[in-house]
């Protein structure tokens, strides 16, 4: 509870500040308010200058802890000078007897002698038993000055007795007082609190405190996502962050009764190397946190995308081939977070050993602390210690390095948890993993067995990764440990993503994911090469961060690793093919027209066999599911199932143009038969409204709904109508629009959806034979409850009707309701336009790739309309901040766009829009299109319909 051991006179000239205060006191001796204002100005100037100097020094030396200590010291001096001035000049308490004096102490993080630039100041004002009449008014005066200076002050005014009583009942208060540090005032009073707190609270209560702190840590981790590998981590509260280091020190200070973390080396809790790791981790995290606070001007604790680049630059990171500066910085961050996890494990192991000697009551708090070990069948090197695998002797790894793999294998097959002391020894034995071990047939057999375990392979692989074994045993995996990708699509580091993908595969195989993935769950038992699938899932992103395409490079890595794992040449080539093609199925399903026969034919030619198709589907599902929460949804599942079934039909010889015509005729008959309550003539006329693509694409159930929808609109004389339906399983909401056809119809619908904040995932565009459009827009679901989602969808439908009818003008609606997402500004995506006439037999396919923003789809479709192009179908795909939108188009007479000059003009116009040079496009957006525009030919509508 001592003062700062180091002073920083370069930050603040304390004598000069005191002299200024003396001058203020003499100049305004009888004028309280002018004195207060002058005092406030002097302190404000000292604080601003001191913090500016701290920031300047920080920019020069980069010391995170040093910066936090400087700011804490500055705060101490300001409080001390203020305390002395208030007591001596305002309340005339300079000669008050020692027994009546108050003490001012720092608590919480400030109590550790470190303070981030934007952090709160937590103060404890200690009162004597017999407080003076001026005590509380003086404290109030000090607090008002601190608040007026802009500080966020957390404070408590208590007697020592209050502190002891409240500490017994409240663990938060107990922790705060544990870190109490005397600043100024009565040092005797502060010392008495320290002595009584140690004797009356800390002594013999270690188990309770440790239980509370570890439970508090676990809950904090749960709230923060329960992983240290989130790509926007919370530096203070997240897993592997500063709070975890503080928790270790709180426990150490409480249990081992130490005042400095360096004392843990003397006690043998940490080795000197481990303590240096503790210091390096703490200094790095403090440096990041201080940069965040300085950069944002507030107590920002989340390392968000929009500040990561600037902090990477401030810390001196540079681009390397395959990895940008920000990705290198974030990889370093996650490696430090992993080090914090290692230190936690090491510390808990030492704590358990100490408990075994001194504090039996701790058992059941940190784990199952029973030291009755029993033999494990089939091994003499490891024992079962209360349900956890432990080492039979300290030299088991040195005697046989294969035991580094066998340790995890035995834990898996015996369903054992891991003793922290054993994991500590694993980490200290990583130097034994050399080329000879990597090439060991037995070691690779054990690894493959772990990976393909029918229990929980992800759990064992995660422990191997945390201990450092996985990255050492597979150096290519080691390269992607803690590697992040600077985009909004991937939520985790690459290694975390791969382990989660393995977990999804395991859960599918164990039947846990049947409801979410019915087709994959049905196919999985029939896949004979399950080892191939598991290896492909683990390795599919192993070449991320390299200059070349990671799929191609990953296939090369697989060809080198698979023989080592014991796979045959045929199996090796299958793994390599799966990795090379692991993005193909997802991209085809989400960005191509699955009703276009050429799409299926081209995809089938790449896949070539049903076995490959099944395995690629499973890999694709695992990959998407492991990207992050909310990325997978039922709509993506539906697209993948459609692509699978269509391709399966072709690969099995059942797909032909003739069968397609027959299927369309059969669908028409089915629709007619389903409308049993309609008069025959009305039924026949209605069926003739629809063209082949509609009959083949839309499910019979939806066709019947559409029939009733159109019939009701016609009966009511409505030229314009909307209908909504929610799909909870698919996590999308369907909005169907019936309207007179118009070349800008999709533009208006997309703009209205953007204005309503609805994210479009797909658009089905159909035209009836009487010149009307029947367009179905699919948007991401927002609310979990169907009633709420239906109301939201209805409001979107109403907005679409208002814009189409001209009651509202689209540009104003978009401008008033949308704004660019702030986080997107942190990213750059070079606009790309690809125009192809080989992807479809009937259409020119335009694919655009650029940074997402509200209203983009509406602007793009407006340009396509300006260029006299007819959109047959649109496929909207969002990958975080990036969009890849695909449009199947023809010219106004239904032909492909083959002219190179025209293609170049289309690309140039679209790139201008994607670069947000589209104000004139927004201005040209139509106000309403309740009737077909003059000059819109029936040939245009028919061409669209006949697609």
From TrEMBL:
**Residues covered by the HD domain:** 494-610
What reaction does this enzyme carry out catalytically? [protein-PII]-L-tyrosine + UTP = [protein-PII]-uridylyl-L-tyrosine + diphosphate; [protein-PII]-uridylyl-L-tyrosine + H2O = [protein-PII]-L-tyrosine + UMP + H(+)
Q: Where is the composition biased (Polar residues)?
A: 935-947
The record's listing under SMART domains reads: HDc (SM00471)
By its UniProt entry, which Pfam families does this protein fall under? ACT, GlnD_UR_UTase, HD, NTP_transf_2
Q: What biological-process GO terms show up in the record?
A: regulation of nitrogen utilization
Q: Which cofactor does it need?
A: Mg(2+)
Domain ACT positions:
734-816, 845-926
Query: What remark about domains does the record contain?
Result: Has four distinct domains: an N-terminal nucleotidyltransferase (NT) domain responsible for UTase activity, a central HD domain that encodes UR activity, and two C-terminal ACT domains that seem to have a role in glutamine sensing.
- Protein name, per record: Bifunctional uridylyltransferase/uridylyl-removing enzyme
Q: Which gene encodes it?
A: glnD
